[in-house]
Amino acid sequence: MKFLFPYMARWKAVNWTRYHQLFTRLARMGHDVYVLQPPASTDVRETNFQEIEVDLPEKLHLIDVDVNQALWRRTVPFNKLFKKGYYSFCCRRAVKKIVAEHEIDVLFLYNIPQYPLLNLCKCFKIFDYADDYREMLKHELGRFSNRLTLDIADFFIHSMISKVDLTLSVSHALADLIRHETAAVEVVPNGAEEDDFRLNEAEAPQIDCSKPVIGFVGSFEYFIDFDLIINTAQKMPEVTFLMVGSGRDFSMVKAEAEKRQLKNMIFTGAVPHSKIGYYIKEMDICLNVFKLIPVSHNACPLKLFEYLIMKKPVISNRLIEVEKINQDFIFFADTPEEMVQSINMVLANNTLAQEYAQRGYKITMKEYTWKNIIIKFLDLLGQYMQK
Fold it and tell me: Which of 7, 148, 237, 378 is least surrounded, with the fewest CB atoms within 10 Å of its CB?
């Protein structure tokens, strides 16, 4: 089968997404995957544009989309939104060309700016509802957000859902928002794969931190509750907090920790996905903490399954989708006081911590491996393409 995936970031980036997992595995299985990507960006804060060397499967083809370079390099108001919209507009010609030349079977879309790509071909079309795009737009617009712009966003989301052949949702919470609009919505969650975390000690990076270690892996973005982590770290100077990742809020979070003179917080910066396992291995407890906002409640966090597949106890705050996922293998805390109490309880009860970790590992291996997710995806695709 041949897939066309217009991606809105650089493929060989530090940030390893749901789409890297899906399409890399599809290519390894023998499917042709054509990935469109924008030019490099000068915004180094964006982990989606911080490039690294990555080995690609033979059947995964990267194609740079032509844009006006002067316009692309320019910084404008709402720069991120503008670049996504402009790039998607430039994708139109590339989509038409690739569909015609390679007889594409499936066009896979996943964001509002890709709406203009819907009517360019007659192949099978998928819309992947992977984030709460309305709420994300609201954040990006900030004080310029208003009812009209959000209604327009809703219009495009609903129009995409109505025009595609199949809508996927990353979470049950997101699916519930649109299930009344279409019968063709299926939940295909995120997950993890144990093979990605088989570690070679000869390649292990130097990680120097005193025990116990409470760890966080992920993007330094607005939806993560860094206040909760920092306030907890301040209350627990005897515990190391290992912060793995980067993003637009990285400098701000690190500066706040330095301002409070928190010597127990270690910031690694951006880490390639292939190295994340080495850091998780050092963690005694892993944190899955988001701000309690719609974007977070509707998310299906990749990091959660990566923690679980490495048999680590996890503390999360109470998020709608995470509570749906939980089968008595997650500890919960919403405030610094609750977090301190939960950390102390887990550290003092190794048997209970390991029971939770083992239960989380077993359920992840049964329900949330990428291998099983790909099988489910292909089964769904076969069913809907026959209709």
Answer: 148
| Phi, psi values for residue 12, rounded to 5° | -85, 55
What lies within 8 Å, CB to CB, of 248 at 6+ separation is 45, 46, 220, 221, 222
Residue identified by tokens 């912060």 is: 243
- The burial of 168, by beta-carbon neighbours within 10 Å (0-12 exposed, 13-18 middle, 19 or more buried), is given as buried
- Give yes or no for a contact between 167 and 129, defined as CB atoms under 8 angstroms apart: yes
Q: How many CA atoms lie within 13 A of 108 on its CB side?
A: 24
What residue spans define the domains of the chain?
2-191+369-385, 194-367
Alpha-carbon span 230 to 260, nearest angstrom? 9
Domain 194-367 in CATH 3.40.50.2000? The answer is yes
Domain 2-191+369-385, second-level architecture: 3-Layer(aba) Sandwich (3.40)
Reduce the DSSP state of residue 79 to 3 states and report it.
Answer: helix
User: pLDDT per residue over 250-269, tens digit each?
Assistant: 999 999 999 999 999 999 99
Domains 2-191+369-385 and 194-367 share a fold: yes
What pTM was computed for the model?
A: 0.92
Q: In what order do the strands lie in the sheet with 213-217?
A: 265-269, 240-244, 213-217, 285-288, 314-316, 330-332
